[in-house]
Design a protein that fits this description.
mainly alpha
Length: 85
């Protein structure tokens, strides 16, 4: 009798494991992968649209001017020491 109850308990645990953990985990993994591939496809399309617009602009206009060079940039709050007499 104890062996029978133990086997029923193990079968119930396996059932709960499969239907409450493994199958939902598989569905979530599948959904996340699909969403990731959709996002990558969307980003690829957006990149191609931007890239296509930039190529048309490059052919029609001159290249952008280089950024201005910055003169001596202060790199901190250091003050030269002066001795007071």
């Amino acid at each position: 009798m104890l062996k029978f109850l133990l086997s029923i308990f193990i079968a119930w645990l396996l059932y709960k494991l499969v239907f409450d953990l493994i199958i939902p985990g598989y569905k979530v993994t599948k959904q996340v992968r699909r969403q990731m591939s959709d996002m990558q496809e969307h980003m690829r399309q957006q990149y191609e649209q931007q890239r296509g617009g930039q190529q048309e602009n490059h052919q029609q206009s001159s290249p952008p001017p280089p950024p201005p060079k910055q003169a001596n940039v202060d790199k901190g709050d250091y003050i030269d020491f002066e001795e007071i007499k």
